[in-house]
Design goal:
The complex is a heterotrimer of chains A (293), B (235) and C (321).
Chain A: H1 2-25, H2 44-51, E1 54-58, E2 61-62, E3 66-68, E4 74-75, H3 77-88, E5 96-100, H4 106-111, E6 117-118, H5 126-129, E7 132-141, E8 143-148, E9 167-170, H6 174-179, H7 186-189, E10 190-193, H8 196-205, E11 210-214, H9 215-224, E12 229-231, E13 239-246, H10 250-266, H11 268-275
Parallel strand pairs in A: 1-5, 1-6, 9-10, 9-11
Antiparallel strand pairs in A: 2-3, 3-4, 7-13, 8-11, 8-12
Chain B: H1 2-6, H2 8-41, H3 45-60, H4 63-76, H5 89-92, H6 94-97, H7 102-128, H8 131-139, H9 144-174, H10 187-197, H11 202-234
Chain C: H1 2-7, H2 13-44, H3 50-57, H4 64-108, H5 116-142, H6 145-158, H7 165-190, H8 194-202, H9 207-237, H10 249-260, H11 263-298, H12 304-319
Helix pairs in contact in C: 3-4, 4-5, 4-7, 4-9, 4-10, 5-7, 6-7, 7-9, 8-9, 9-11, 9-12, 10-11
Classes of the chains: A alpha/beta (293), B mainly alpha (235), C mainly alpha (321).
């Protein structure tokens, strides 16, 4: 019985793989007319435009970037940037299907085609580029450390080197990997949760001494509770946020890059920021240069 | 497959941590469960209500919710579960003694949750003792406590072993949740870490993790089956 | 209840006084303990403030309708996943139980009357199949459901099969629970008096007909309480959907917390709803069990006592995960 099911699944898997391969092969079109709503045949843009629907992976728990609130719709800077791209594809906003993409599954959902693109405080780095491709960046954040307002003992990542201070981050995120370089003993100093919200609660309750992740996320928590938290020192990394797409899909990536550049120029990028994460007092800075590789 | 060899220490470490928390939680749950079981059959109504309430609450709540209350409710009550830093014990189980309380929180949650089922297993054992035994003891003039101690419990113990074993097996499996509540490095968190953060291939990691759990659950299950068969014959 | 009256006599006047006094003392101690250990610390941290509770309990609060709409959606999703998982587990579990019983009896058969190599081949094959199903059952029964769900959600896409998260959850739950249900049914069928199968064979039923028409219906009936307890387990385990981002009650709770910042309050409300639903289900299981016990007694069975405890152990074992 079980064997039969497995066999059936395997058959289905082969079939799906085969079809995916066929779909990937004929990515031969060119001339991605940004602005116009007709796209070269065979491109992802054309497929999405024809289907008039798109699946986008974003965070549902990131204030200022992607937070699914009581309305049941995600809100934030990532969401707004994604909406700019969707508009450029000629798809109405209400046809977007938002899929939750927590840090640890972002590559997976792109690779296996669960979503068409991911905009989820997604740091561009080389290791991820092995599996997927990035358009952008559309924002440059940096890792920082959130501590209690009255804490003077933690001044930067080096404060974790003596092995006494405890720090919290999120499973599978870049900050969690980064901070491992500084902590002395991972087992007794590092706490990992599935969301930063829990980290914040742990910091407030005193179970951990610090929360580390990108400054903009931390600024969101400070904005909500200025009496309790502050940042310890300056950013110690650069975290350019990009849009994740399938690795081989260069046209879609170029299209998104064009769209981002247009958004940088016409002010819609700045407006997206001011409406969302900008409210936390973080600096937007000048528009980053998109990296076409 | 090389991940199984390269990262053998990670798997072994995860297995060891899971085993530690399971041993501790099993001991705690057996003790607390016995206490709750006594409450549930005690002659004092408020205590009985407390026991019944306890079982109904913890048996009907998802473990996830219990875990959450242990990890975030206890701190709100101003406790870091420091009462679990038992001298001597925290030297053997080092995680008990560290300043990072999530191991202790997870332990509290597993004990609280499992105790409800331990209580029910013990009670089913008590129920299996023929009523005539307790009646005979009573007619000899034994009090409630004596009755339990000399007549009912020695007999009910036998009938409780198998259900208790099933409860412990279930608890081992439930311990897979602790990785989602701040405990770093147990078996299930290892799966997450290796596949999502370090990008290892999924299948070998899955095999390694499965072996880790099966080593704990399958022999225990086989042992229980044997005991059950023996008892069935004896009966 | 009957057990409690067995353990001690009907109290006399003195005993009643003692009970009354100890009741009062116990209640007082419990209340004092609850006040100092639970109420006061929570109150000091402001956990009872209307700011945190308002959106959940005050219909006048601006967020109240939104919050409850979300919680309703969460429980709807929980129930959908649980219902699908239960139905598919029952179907797969029943088939699996029948298959295992068949294979077991096949593995015992000697296939006499066939040529020697053929009979050896058939024996080897049926033993192998029996062994394979046995291993599958042991493996999936021995793995934590969380791990199974996690493996399904990660493993299937690895091989190019993708669904909605709902289906990962349902498949994960089904794999685990169908195995458990298969074992419940199998032990029910094997626990039946041997005369049942013998009588069926005597009137000329084939083995699979015996299983389908004689053993299975009786096993279902005997194991009904254990099966209902398993439903509670499935309902509770649905909450594990949060690890694969399925929007069930707890996950929605997490989102609400993200907006309102009141984790303890939201979890209390969700916990209470779970308790109410599951408690009613357990009560249903008890009711069914009582009715069944009555039915058997009136049928004049002498095995009631032993079967009763067996039932209870199964139910306990099942309810734990």
């Amino acid at each position: 019985m079980r064997m039969k099911r497995v066999a059936a699944l395997a058959a289905a898997a082969t079939l799906a793989l085969g079809m995916a391969a066929c779909g990937g092969d004929d990515d031969g079109g060119e001339g991605t007319g940004a602005g116009s709503k007709s796209f070269a045949a065979g491109t992802t843009m054309e497929r999405l435009n024809k289907a008039q629907s798109i699946k986008i992976g974003t965070k549902f728990d990131q204030p200022g970037f992607g937070l699914k609130g009581l309305s049941g719709k995600p809100e934030g800077f990532d969401v707004e940037v994604a909406k700019i791209i969707v508009k450029e594809l000629g798809i109405p906003e209400d046809k977007i299907e938002w899929v939750e993409a927590p840090s640890k599954v972002r590559e997976d959902v792109i690779v296996n085609g669960t979503v068409d693109l991911v905009a989820a405080t997604y740091t561009i780095n080389d290791k991820r580029k092995e599996r997927i491709a990035f358009a952008g960046p559309y924002y440059e954040a940096g890792q920082n450390i959130l501590v209690k307002k009255d804490d003077t003992t933690i001044t930067g990542p080096d404060s974790f080197k003596d092995g006494t201070k405890k720090v919290c981050s999120v499973t599978g995120s870049t900050p969690a990997e980064e901070i491992k370089k500084y902590v002395k003993d991972v087992a007794t100093q590092l706490v990992l949760f599935d969301t930063y919200d829990k980290c914040k609660d742990a910091l407030k309750g005193g179970q951990v001494d610090a929360v580390t992740t990108d400054n903009v996320i931390l600024l969101g928590y400070i904005a909500k509770d200025e009496a309790s938290f502050k940042l310890a020192g300056d950013n110690f990394t650069k975290e350019p946020y990009g849009i994740g797409v399938k690795k081989e899909d260069t046209e879609f990536r170029n299209f998104i890059n064009d769209t981002l550049e247009k958004a940088f120029a016409d002010g819609s990028w700045k407006k997206a920021w001011d409406d969302t994460a900008g409210k936390f007092g973080a600096e937007l800075g000048s528009a980053p240069t998109v990296n076409r590789y | 497959m090389s991940v199984l060899i390269d990262k053998f220490d990670v798997f072994a470490g995860g297995f060891w941590l899971t085993l530690q928390i399971c041993v501790l939680a099993a001991i705690g749950a057996l003790i607390l469960g016995a206490v709750v079981a006594v409450l549930r059959i005690s002659p004092v109504p408020p205590l009985r209500a407390l026991g019944t309430g306890y079982v109904n609450v913890f048996r009907n709540m998802p473990l996830t919710v219990v875990m959450f209350f242990a990890a975030f409710g206890l701190p709100a009550l101003g406790s870091n579960a420091d009462f679990l830093r038992i001298p001597g014990l925290d030297a053997i189980f080092t995680r008990l003694g560290t300043d990072l309380p999530y191991f202790r929180f997870a332990l509290v949650a597993l004990v609280l949750y499992t105790a409800a089922f331990v209580c029910e297993a013990l009670r089913s054992g008590v129920n299996a003792v023929p009523a005539g035994q307790a009646e005979a003891a009573r007619s000899l003039g034994l009090t409630f406590g004596q009755n339990l101690r000399y007549v009912v419990l020695p007999q009910s113990w036998k009938a409780s072993v198998v259900p208790l074993g099933s409860v412990i097996i279930a608890m081992i499996k439930n311990s897979a949740l602790i990785g989602f509540f701040g405990v770093v490095g147990d078996l299930s968190a290892t799966a997450d870490q290796l596949t999502s953060a370090e990008g290892y291939a999924f299948v070998p990691v899955a095999i390694g993790i499965s072996i880790g759990y099966l080593i704990m659950t399958v022999p225990l299950g086989a042992l229980l089956d044997r005991i059950e068969k023996r008892q069935a014959v004896a009966r | 209840m009957s057990q409690q009256t067995v353990l001690y006599d009907v109290p006399g006047p003195r005993q009643r006084r003692i009970t009354l006094v100890s009741s009062v003392v116990a209640t007082a101690l419990l209340l004092v303990g609850a006040y100092f250990l639970v109420y006061r610390p929570l109150d000091e941290k402001g956990q009872f403030s209307m700011e945190l509770w308002g959106p959940l309990v005050d219909p006048g609060n601006e967020n109240f309708p939104l919050v409850w709409e979300r919680i309703g959606l969460g429980f709807k999703n929980t129930l959908i996943a649980a219902a699908l998982a239960i139905v598919s587990s029952l179907i797969v579990g029943t088939l699996l139980a029948m298959l295992r019983i068949q294979l077991k009896s096949l593995a015992r058969r000697r296939f006499t009357g066939l040529a020697t190599p053929v009979s050896y081949l058939l024996r080897g094959l049926s033993m192998l199949l029996s062994g394979v199903t046995r291993v599958c059952v042991e493996v999936f029964r021995g793995l934590p459901v969380v791990i199974t769900i996690f493996f399904v959600a990660r493993g299937f896409p690895e091989f190019g099969v993708t669904f909605d998260t709902l289906w990962y959850l349902v498949i994960g739950l089904t794999i685990y629970n169908s195995v458990v249900i298969a074992e419940i049914l199998r032990s029910g069928m094997e626990g039946l008096p041997g005369g049942q199968a013998e009588a069926a064979a005597a009137i000329g039923l084939a083995p699979w007909q015996t299983t389908r028409m004689i053993l299975l219906p009786q096993a279902f009936r005997i194991m009904l309480p254990a099966l209902i307890s398993q439903l509670v387990v499935v309902l509770k385990d649905t909450s594990l959907g949060f690890i694969i981002s399925y929007e069930e009650a707890l996950n929605i709770g997490k989102q609400i917390i993200g907006s309102l910042g009141n984790p303890i309050q939201v979890y209390i409300v969700i916990g209470v709803i779970f308790i109410v639903v599951n408690y009613s289900l357990s009560k249903l299981a008890q009711y069914v069990q009582h009715r069944l016990a009555r039915g058997r007694k009136s049928a004049g069975g002498t095995r009631t006592g032993a079967a009763g405890t067996e039932l209870e152990t199964e139910a306990v074992a099942g309810t734990t995960t």
